[in-house]
Amino acid sequence: MKKIPYGRQNITEEDIQAVVDILKSDFLTQGPIIAEFESAFSSYIGCKYAVAVSNGTAALHLCALALDIKSGDKVITTPITFAATANCVRYAGGDVVFADIDPNTYLLDIKEVEKKLKSVPKGTYKGIIPVDFAGRAVNLEAFRKLADEYGCWIIEDSCHAPGGFFIDSMDAKHNCGNGQYAELAIFSFHPVKHIAAGEGGMITTNDENLYHRLRNLRTHGIQQNPNLKQFNHGAWYYEMQELGYNYRLTDFQAALAISQLKRAKEGIKKRINIASVYEKAFAGKSFIKKQVGLVEGHAYHLYVVEVENRNGLYDHLRNYNIFPQIHYIPVHLMPYYRQFGWKEGDFPIAESYYNNCLSIPIFPTLTEEDQKFVIEKVFEFFC
Fold this sequence. Notes:
The protein is of the alpha/beta class. It has 2 domains: 4-261, Type I PLP-dependent aspartate aminotransferase-like (Major domain) (Aspartate Aminotransferase, domain 2); 264-382, Aspartate Aminotransferase, domain 1. It has 13 helices and 16 strands. The strands form 5 sheets. Strands 2-10-9-6-5-3-4 form a 7-stranded mixed sheet, with helices on both faces. It has a 3-stranded antiparallel sheet with strand order 13-14-16. A two-stranded parallel ribbon has the order 1-15. β3 (74-77), α4 (84-91) and β4 (95-98) form a beta-alpha-beta unit. The protein starts with a strand and ends with a helix.
């Protein structure tokens, strides 16, 4: 039987040609197409600056470094995310503090965050990392107000949501990662994401100082700038000004991403259409405890359902070559994070969600026939 994954890349002849053109060019890395991609992506998102990096995890790590997270700094995030969201705080020596999710949106619950901020002296917490989980945009206007009250910065993890947006209190549209409410935002170009580059990531910001720091950290902390000359050297002169990393994106990945970016809006529309079909098929069905829902501004990286006997349905679908996925095992229950005292029962909403959640196939090239087959097999299991 044909395999139907929960998500997959769509590579066209145009994508392939874009990569071939780079392979025939003078630059495979550190070439002019990197800046071209950064410019195109910042225009798409609506921010001032964008910094391309090797992957989403590298993007998170550089954000943590640029914001000067250090040992003992406490940062709040959600347990329903990929581990990298929390790990970036640990990379820099900080302490991760989780807060429960909203049962309706699956996003970090701002009321739970506020409880943690209120329970300790101001300044105890340094930052908040909300996640646009499954493609649903966090209302960063509300988080910004709370963060300002308690002196926190915000990193928006938008790996699931390029093209997603929310509407603020003034009825203005805010694209995920546009820099209006968060100091920094990050994106991923992993194959199952909206824009596939094999791997790759992007950091967006409106802060010029953070932008220049990120560019420095991306390449070993090294700059090559004639204005930096301290001695009478030649044109080769460069300086390592701080400890950075090799988190550069290759030129052929950037070329693939630019080609993919041209179809990004079309891809969002297809994802919304697929979500609409699922919504109609599952509406009012007692075996569906909850659906992700049709939400304005949702980018639909994932289509999540909560069901009874999740494990049974998971196995049933796999028997028919349908490969759903679980997003995510709560990060606080990972063995690494349990060493810090996190345990079952700490976040009942997140844990209940995990016990019932299933991400079923959604990607732009999912055919009507294949989606019908997925729905049919879900009904077959319960009915």
